[in-house]
Structure formats: C-alpha cells, structure tokens
Design goal:
With about 200 residues, this protein is an alpha/beta fold. Helices cover about 40% and strands about 15% of the residues. The protein contains 7 helices and 7 strands, in the order E-H-E-H-E-H-E-H-E-H-E-H-E-H. It has a 7-stranded parallel sheet with strand order 4-3-2-1-5-6-7, sandwiched between helices. Helix 1 packs parallel to helix 2.
Amino acid sequence: MIKRVCVYCASSDYSDQVYLNAAYRLGEILAEKSITIVYGGGSAGLMGMLANGALSKGGKVVGIIPQFMYELEWGHEGLTELQIVNNMHERKELMMMNTDAAIALPGGSGTLEELFETITLKRLGVYLNPIILVNIKNFFDPCIQLLENAVIEKFMDERNKLMWKVVDDPSNVLEAIIASPVWTEESRHFATLKKDK
C-alpha cells in the first residue's frame, strides 16, 4: 500500500507549461489516492504546481526546505507542513525517509542530483523502494541513455537497470510503482563489479 512518496522536481517558473501541468496533475493524482507528498518545499515552478495540485484535492503535502532557502522566502506557505532544516544534505535525507517510492519529474541540477543519489543508495541496498522517472517530453532520455551506457561499459551490473521505471505521463506513476520489482539488500552483492580471484 502506497502511503507516502518523495517527489523531486524543479523550481523554475519559466519551464514549458507541459511540465507545469504534469506536476499539477501528479499532485492531484496522489492526493486523490490519499498519498502524502514529501518534496522540497518550494512555491515556484513544478514544486509549487505539484503542491497546489495536491492541495486542491485536499491532499497532505510536506515540504522540507533548508534555512537559507526559507530566509529567501522560497517556501510554500500553504502546505500541510513545512520543515526547516540546516542544509541540503539533511533535506535530502528527510525527503527519502519513510517513503514508499521516489518520483522524479523533470528539473535542473538539483533534481538530477537528488535522483542520482537515490539511484546510488538503491544500488547499495540502502534505499529499497521504487524509483519512477516521469519522462515528460522525453526529458529524461539522455539520463536513461547515460545510465544504460554505464551498464554497457561495465560500470554497473545489468541487474541495476531494474532499479528504476520510466513513464511518460503522471497517470501511469502509481501503476509503475506497483509493478516495480522487489529490491533487497542482496543487491549489495553486485553493487561492485569484481573479477573472480
């Protein structure tokens, strides 16, 4: 049962409307299923649209924002809960904590950094839950190609490609979470590719 998810996304108001609409719709979908959203706490861009979409349906939205961002007035004031933390590292840790899945909408370096850290932690058997990339306008295609190339070039195991699922629309996110293969700490045995001695 999916109760709480972490969502990574951008804070730019200048991105294409199709991205903003997708974030809003994802918020609506999650709220309609009574799934709590944990995200970066921002009010602008996809962050704000995600939160507003969920709140429009009576959903629960928890924002986690570093102190310096809060002082810059980047925080969303209408959330169910806004947690102010010391730094970006603490923010990421709390965003993932006690969630049933991690979802990545398109975004910039911060979104990609959060996504890659989550993939890394899953590879190491630390984070075991589904990771879903919402590939609006094929935004994540270069990222997916890069990860697959890392497998081809033997920097990652073929089984690591099971760590994430890709959907092209927010309406497919919940189905992808449910369909994600079980991942366990056993993945640590192939996290590092070693030759037999």
